[in-house]
């Protein structure tokens, strides 16, 4: 192919799990060679090879090991129309980075930022923006908005991601509502574009949501109150008065939440900020009010 160049050449395992819209039952990992270029992915074995054009990919999802597919530590699920493959390269980190960079780097999208700040709707409007995978910082994407705003989105900082269908600039479009932080304050950045681009970006940022999932966390009413107050932008120093609790009680709550990786200390003992996991819990608690 004209202008084609290699990005990754590694060994690994792969298997087609959906063919022509039908899930396959005879799943068997095939060892072989995995070659990724800026145009296509080639999965090669001694018996032959399968070529997948990157332009046909509609979804990319990185997954951890599960019991049914326990022969590998992790894999990437690739969807192309009515077909789907699981690919488990030896150099998985480089493979995922190069794949997402090739698919998403420098695409033009629509962004509303911040659509929410501290849980409160802002007056932000939809603007064109350029999406860029950071060359230096792993798991970071940069969004340059046409009005001059620059958003640095750390995937590990993503608390929740919701995909919806809404009217954007007078047209029904898919969009992502991505919760993260800026200067310690919870914000939502809304991203829209073509269905393919929204799906691919969703697969990338959901990696952070999965790492920070708030499953199996049982909080006391006092702990939930503190989380909701922090999520709303209340200063850690004003929390005792805001939630009507003694300073010692609040500090004890901070200690328990830090042990659960829901809060992280910033400078002094009483200054803390929400981790992505904590923001996910607080956001759910506020929604339930």
Mean pLDDT over all positions? 87
| Order of secondary-structure elements | EEEEEEEEHEEEEEEEEHHHHEEH
Helix/strand/pairing class, anyone? Answer: alpha+beta
Low-confidence stretches: none
CATH C-level class of the largest domain: Mainly Beta
What is the tally of beta strands?
18
Give the helix tally: 6
In percent, how much strand structure appears in the residues? 35-45%
Question: In the CATH hierarchy, what is the architecture of the largest domain at level 2?
Answer: Roll
Task: Report the sheet with the most strands, covering strand number, pairing sense and barrel closure.
Answer: 8 strands, antiparallel
Provide the gyration radius in Å: 22 Å
At the fold tier of CATH, the topology name of the largest domain is PH-domain like
Overall tally of structural domains: 3
Compute the separation of the termini in Å: 56 Å
How would you describe this protein?
The protein has 289 residues and is of the alpha+beta class. The protein has three domains: 6-103, Roll (PH-domain like), CATH 2.30.29; 105-211, Pleckstrin-homology domain (PH domain)/Phosphotyrosine-binding domain (PTB) (PH-domain like, Roll); 221-287, Winged helix-like DNA-binding domain superfamily/Winged helix DNA-binding domain (Arc Repressor Mutant, subunit A). The protein has helices at 92-104, 195-211, 221-231, 239-243, 247-259, 276-287; strands at residues 6-19, 22-23, 30-37, 40-45, 48-53, 59-64, 74-80, 83-89, 107-117, 120-121, 127-133, 140-145, 150-154, 161-168, 171-182, 185-192, 263-265, 272-274. Strands 1, 2, 3, 4, 5, 6, 7 and 8 form an eight-stranded antiparallel beta sheet that branches. Strands 9, 10, 11, 12, 13, 14, 15 and 16 form an eight-stranded antiparallel beta sheet that branches. β15 (171-182) and β16 form a beta hairpin. α3 packs across α6 (276-287).
């Amino acid at each position: 192919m004209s202008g084609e160049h290699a990005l990754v050449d590694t060994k690994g395992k792969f298997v087609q799990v959906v063919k022509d819209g039908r899930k396959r039952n005879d799943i068997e990992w095939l060892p072989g060679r995995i070659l990724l270029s800026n145009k296509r992915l080639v999965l090669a074995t001694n018996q032959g090879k399968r070529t997948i054009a990157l332009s046909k990919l509609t979804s990319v999802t990185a997954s951890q090991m599960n019991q049914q597919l326990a022969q590998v530590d992790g894999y990437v699920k690739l969807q192309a129309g009515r077909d789907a493959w699981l690919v488990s390269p030896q150099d998985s980190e480089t493979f995922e980075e190069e794949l997402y960079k090739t698919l998403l780097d420098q695409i033009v999208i629509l962004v509303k930022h911040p659509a929410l700040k501290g849980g409160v709707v802002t007056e932000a409007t939809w603007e064109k923006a350029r999406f860029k995978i950071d060359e230096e910082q792993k798991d970071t994407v940069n969004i340059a908005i046409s009005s001059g705003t620059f958003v640095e989105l750390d995937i590990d900082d993503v608390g929740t991601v919701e995909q919806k269908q809404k009217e954007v600039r007078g047209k029904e479009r898919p969009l992502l509502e991505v919760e993260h932080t800026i200067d310690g304050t919870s914000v939502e950045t809304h991203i829209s574009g073509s269905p393919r681009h929204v799906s691919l970006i969703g697969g990338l940022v959901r990696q952070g949501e999965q790492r920070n999932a708030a499953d199996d966390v049982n909080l006391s009413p006092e702990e939930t109150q503190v989380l909701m107050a922090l999520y709303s932008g209340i200063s850690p120093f004003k929390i005792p008065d805001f939630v009507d609790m003694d300073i010692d009680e609040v500090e004890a709550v901070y200690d328990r939440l830090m042990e659960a990786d829901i809060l992280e200390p910033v400078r002094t003992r009483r200054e803390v900020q929400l981790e992505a996991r904590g923001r996910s819990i607080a956001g759910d608690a506020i929604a339930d009010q």
